[in-house]
Structures are given as structure tokens and as C-alpha cells.
Amino acid sequence: MSEQQQPIFNIQKIHVKDLSLEIPHAPRIYLERDAPEINVQLDNKNECFDDGMYEVILTGIVTAKVKDKIMFLVEAHQAGIFQVRNIAEEEIKPVLGITCPNILFPYLRETVSDIVTRAGFPAILLNPVNFEAIYQRNQRQNQAVAEQSD
Q: Please, what is the end-to-end C-alpha distance for the chain in angstroms?
């Protein structure tokens, strides 16, 4: 097999695409002594923007509440540019939906922890995520929706 036919997977760039922090009840919220309730939402999207070049964006939204007040809200979009070539179409989707988010997650975790700490709150460490299970669940849901619409 020639080198051109070998599967290619390369990380071209990992970067923070968008980052926002809101502390709507500052400065009084800093005086709260109760432990906040933390809610984490994750999403990932991908787009082919050039032949064999994909941008994958892992989005994390972390909301901390004390009673009925938002302590802080962080929205971070951790992105990566990946070169994926010579891989069958049905195999590209798991690469983009599992492998790439697994690569991006530690960077997202660090970004969220850093911005929360810089805002004056104790660090938030996001728990590990099983992107394979999420991908498979989404595939089953998409298949069920497709079967219902037939």
C-alpha cells in the first residue's frame, strides 16, 4: 500500500475558540458560605472545512448556584483542527465524535478550572466523560428517530 493510502490522523491545532464568564451577583455572592450546586453540560460539533480538514468544537457550560442565585456561569468552546484522510466515511464519524472529543476534553477541563479560579472561586474539576457511550447513545437515538419517520 502506498503512503498516500495509509490512514492519516493529525492534530493541527488545539485552541480556545470562545470563552465567557458571568458572575451576575458579584460582589455579594463571594460572601456565600454554602456549597454551590454544580451543573455541567457538554456538547460537541464538527465541520469539514477543507479536504480532509475538520474542526471539532467541544463546548462545556458550567453553572454554579447557591440557593436560587447563580454564583457563576462559564461557557467554554475548546476547538481542535484535525487532519483525517484515507479513512472510510463510516469510520470518520466515530473519530470525530469519540477520538477528537477525548483529545479536547483535558484542555476544556483546564480552561474551565483556570477561569473559575481566576474569578476568585475554588477550582472546578470536570469529571471524566465517556464520549464513546455518548456517541453510541446519540447514534441509537438518531436511528430510532429515522425509523419513526419512515
A: 41
CA–CA distance, 11 with 102 (Å, rounded to integer): 12
- Say if residues 126 and 62 touch (Cβ distance below 8 Å): yes
Question: pLDDT per position in the chain (150 positions), as tens?
Answer: 455 589 999 999 999 999 999 999 999 999 999 999 999 999 999 999 999 999 999 999 999 999 999 999 999 999 999 999 999 988 999 999 999 999 999 999 999 999 999 999 999 999 999 999 999 998 899 888 888 887
Helix/strand/coil (H/E/C) assignment for every residue in 10-32: EEEEEEEEEEEEECCCCCHHHHC
Domains of the chain: 3-149 (3.10.420.10)
Cβ neighbour number for residue 80 with a 10 Å cutoff: 21
**Global confidence as pTM:** 0.90
Instruction: Name residue 98's amino acid.
Output: I
